[in-house]
Task: structure prediction
Amino acid sequence: MQNYTPLRALLCAAAILGAGSSHAADFHFTGSLFNNTDRVDVAFELGSAGDVKLWTDSWQGGLNFDPVSVLWKKMGNGFAFVQEVDDDNTVASGQGFYDTGHTRNGLTPGNYLLSVGPSFAEAYASGTLYSQGFTQDGTAPIPIAQWNQPGYDINNDDQKGTFYSIHLSGVDTASISAVPEPESIALLLAGLCRVGAAARGKL
Result:
């Protein structure tokens, strides 16, 4: 389940002033991924050019997975690549060494996507368009709790946590969706079918 904490006062002010106005706000989304091939997509809008910061603060010294993020901008019928960042802890306080972030001064108005997922897995872009997918599309998903992420500390068995925390500052609206790989969906559906069959057998 994903949760978010916007600056409520700014959002209320924007609602009162009407749809035509643009008021930058801060958003915070948290939740958990299940597999190393899952990712989170955050859609956000910028009504006028402004300074935007996008970052994670969930690595927590290796308790959770090492994230990577890709920024995309809506162009025509799709989304075009803007920037990919693996490790950047200079965007905001509270970040860990392997957290990720983007600082974009004077970002042009438009609709954007921020894709966040485990580093060395799903979240590396395969091309300059979102529709071209990510480097590990089609690979068998591994539960993050069982996944030996490249570079993890095998002695402490860290980077097994599934938690993510994503911040957006200076954007007008934002919404989030967790995006599991098709294989993850297939496994989930297969599990549900088995549960359903077992339930029917007991009736």
In short: The chain is about 15% helix and 35% strand.
